[in-house]
Amino acid sequence: MAKKAKGNRIQVILECTEHKESGMAGTSRYISTKNRKNTPERLEIKKFNPVLKRYTVHKEIK
Q1: Parallel, antiparallel, or unpaired for β 29-35 and 44-49?
Q2: Could you tell me which of 21, 32, 31, 23 has the C-alpha nearest to residue 56?
Q3: Residues 48-58 pLDDT 10s
């Protein structure tokens, strides 16, 4: 039986919102970490989207 992780720091996946809405093929995703205690809400960070070739808002997905 595997042990459950006890830390507050978890890995989250960030996905581009503009790319998703545009209907273009593929997606822009990043993996980041966040502290569950300090930021209980979902992350929203501006990151570079290589397909659109500009900085766009990336939101945390479940």
Answers
A1: unpaired
A2: 21
A3: 999 999 999 99
For residue 8, the SS3 value is coil
Q: Which of 20, 19, 25, 8 is nearest to 53 (CA)?
A: 19
- What pLDDT, on the 0 to 100 scale, is given for residue 62? 82
Structural domains present in the chain:
9-61 (2.20.28.120)
DSSP output for 13-59 = EEEEHHHHHHT-SS--EEEEEEETTT--SPPEEEEEETTTTEEEEEE
Global confidence as pTM: 0.78
Question: In one letter, which amino acid is 61?
Answer: I
